[in-house]
């Protein structure tokens, strides 16, 4: 296979990709067929041992509204401040569609749970990038609610061995995503020759 002589278009996409704040996403969102294509692309993520240590839960409007309400109830029960509750609830209320990536660590002598969690994280990023590359707006969020066991048990009916790796919100971007400072590659890269 010949070596590339110019920068591929996919590198330009990855160098300029920007997530869209959930408040800037609107309907329409991908339909079932398009979303299935995005999920297939995301599932091509690195998966040491071919364990598939993740699964998807698709949240449509009624589910998003239910979870927004549950966030408010749990936030109050946990004594969260009103701003934190509103922010977490609004992410569900504003989203036209969300995919919860569930990390499902599987017993395996060769692949430790942390590597399986990394795979679930790779799926999250791959789904965001697949959505953005397809012309949708998308963002990967988590927040306090997805780390609250009562919320995930009541809201998502997760098994005891499961956890939320991320929630990928997808829809139509209503504004250009904001730019933000990016890492100084020279400051964080070491080149070793021996």
TrEMBL record:
It comes from Rhodovulum bhavnagarense. This is Putative NAD(P)H nitroreductase. InterPro entries: NAD(P)H_nitroreductase (IPR052530), Nitroreductase (IPR029479), Nitroreductase-like (IPR000415), YdjA-like (IPR026021). Belongs to the nitroreductase family. One of its GO terms (molecular function) is oxidoreductase activity. Keywords: Flavoprotein, FMN, NAD, NADP, Oxidoreductase. Binds 1 FMN per subunit. Its cofactor is FMN.
């Amino acid at each position: 296979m010949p070596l590339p002589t110019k920068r591929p278009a996919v590198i330009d996409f990855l160098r300029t990709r920007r997530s869209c704040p959930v408040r800037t996403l609107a309907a329409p969102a991908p339909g079932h067929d398009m979303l299935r294509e995005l999920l297939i692309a995301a599932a091509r993520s690195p998966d040491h041992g071919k364990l598939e240590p993740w699964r998807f839960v698709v949240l449509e409007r009624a589910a998003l509204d239910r979870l927004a309400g549950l966030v408010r109830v749990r936030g109050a029960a946990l004594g969260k401040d009103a701003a934190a509750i509103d922010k977490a609830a609004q992410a569900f209320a504003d989203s036209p569609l969300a995919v919860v990536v569930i990390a499902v660590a599987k017993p395996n002598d060769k692949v430790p749970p942390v590597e399986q969690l990394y795979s679930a994280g790779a799926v999250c990023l791959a789904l965001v990038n697949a959505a953005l590359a397809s012309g949708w707006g998308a963002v990967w969020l988590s927040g306090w609610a997805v780390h609250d066991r009562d919320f995930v048990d009541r809201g998502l009916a997760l098994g005891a061995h499961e956890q939320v790796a991320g929630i990928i919100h997808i829809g139509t971007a209503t504004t250009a995503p904001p730019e933000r400072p990016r890492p100084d590659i020279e400051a964080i890269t070491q080149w070793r020759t021996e």
